Amino acid sequence: MCIPLLTQSDSSSLKRRKRGKFDLWISLCLLGIWAAPAQAQNLESGEQLYRTLCARCHGMLGEGGEGPSLKRAQLLHAPDDDSLVSVIVGGIPGTGMPGSRQLRGGDGVDVAAYVRSLGQLPPETMPGDPNAGERIYRNEGNCASCHILDGEGTGIGPELSQVGQRRNLAYLRRALTDPAAEQPRLVDRYRGSLNAFLTVRIVSEYGSFEGMRVNEDAFSVQMRDLAGTIYSFDKADLISYEKALGHSLMPGYAATLSTQQVDDVVSYLMSLR
Length: 273
Ligand code: HEC
Ligand code: HEC
Known about the structure:
Elements: H1 14-31, H2 43-53, H3 55-58, H4 81-90, H5 107-118, H6 130-138, H7 163-166, H8 169-177, E1 199-204, E2 207-216, E3 220-224, E4 230-234, E5 240-244, H9 259-270
The structure holds heme C (2 copies).
One heme C (HEC) binds next to helix 3, helix 4, helix 5 and helix 7.
């Protein structure tokens, strides 16, 4: 692999760097006279690229949001720098983490270096007691009636086994107190993990149904109701079909749990990694 050696002063203009310097090192690489050091990287350009490509999901300061907080020294999918670059460029298939294939040359390495620098920031602190939170999860919250955690429970909601790895404190609190806040409001223009949880309401000659959309194409739609039963409908036969945007099948817990209990459950969720 050939990586450009850049110093801080090169970052003044990303464009200039991309043309002049980039061409130069490509030719040097081709000539085989440059043995590039693997650590060569440019934090400033990495930060700029991060803000454009990553901040909307991982937060301006790496605090997380739709994506996990990156203020962690250990990353599950990226134990070393090479795997971090492949996660950044190629994404994590089957999850809400898209690749940034437009990154060229050393850009992926620069972003990786910036992500590692975020990892040196102190991690988020828990607002409450995770052990108390676990008891609430099992009892008052009855969360296992909709979520699978370490193989236990039923699964109309997303699996929560590693949710603390995927989401940050603010997101988890919102998911618990105002579940609809994270729901898609625009059909299919919002591509990503969230569209997986679209609530649909269907009226057919057999009655009214509400549940989670499992699959849909031009002619049919499949949904699963809260009891876990999966139904399939031919769209042509339906009396009405509504995509309940901004609606969640999960009850909000702001009214049923105290502030302390919400903090405890959020702490428990943060501990799930
Ligand atoms: C559309 C939202 C989105 C964008 C944009 C995005 N990510 Fe992610 N990212 C996610 C989600 C969601 C996950 C968690 C995937 C999972 O494990 O389920 C993730 C996971 C990761 C991980 C793995 C964390 C770990 O602990 O293993 C890294 C590293 C990462 N993202 C870095 C980046 C960088 C750097 C960028 C920009 C180049 C970026 N992401 C852009 C949503 C996003
Ligand atoms: C009636 C079913 C139901 C119950 C009960 C329920 N949830 Fe959910 N939960 C869902 C669904 C469905 C989603 C998917 C997103 C949405 O629709 O809001 C979800 C999403 C979530 C998320 C977001 C996960 C992510 O990765 O985005 C978290 C966290 C969560 N639930 C935690 C809990 C906790 C903790 C409890 C108990 C205090 C609980 N849920 C009880 C159905 C439920």
